[in-house]
Amino acid sequence: MRPENRAADALRPVRFELGASPYAEGSCLSIFGNTRVLCTASVDESTPPWLRGKGRGWVTAEYAMLPRATHQRTRREVTAGKPSGRTQEIQRLIGRSLRAVTDLSALGERQILIDCDVLQADGGTRTAAITGAWLALKQATAWLVEEDVLKSDPVFGQLAAVSAGIVDGQARLDLEYEEDRVAEADANFVLTNDGGVVEIQATAEDRPITSEQFADVFSLARKGIGELCLLQSQALG
Q1: What is the pTM of this model?
Q2: Where does phosphate bind (predicted)?
């Protein structure tokens, strides 16, 4: 049985609290069960040096965990002088995902900085971050349109992210920590609301999984993404 008798194809309770950070142009507290990630979007009227004069903008992301987001305190990465390899990989994933549904030319010569801070971790922090980050980005670009900075919204697509894996031989959606740590395979899916694939990260632990098992996992992910996109749309009103 899954924790709290959750069905294999069921998401954890999901909630999006928009405006969680009132000073940011866009913000969302992304809640997946006991995982909580604060996502903010900040508009910066400049671009990275390598983009200056090219007539297009940029969307980038930073990701971090609070020391007691996990069961034992983890050291702040700033005290180590640089982000860990895992942190760098996750923030690049967030940035890539959001740029895949953003017209950077329409954004103009400015950038939107996405900050994803994990307040509490119980599995699926990167997927909760991406899903909440899209909502924060969407609010920030809507603000640019409302302020007559842009004529139209450069975010042309909707996306969300979810995990799925094989636990005790069973395909399961949206793994929490107790499942993730014993999974025979786990994967993170970033998909658009119309089924487009942005990125898939999949790993088998002890032995390769079959194509049939991967198909089952992928099917669960598509179902979960559809539900998440509906919740995003409801949150935006």
Answers
A1: 0.96
A2: 86, 124-126
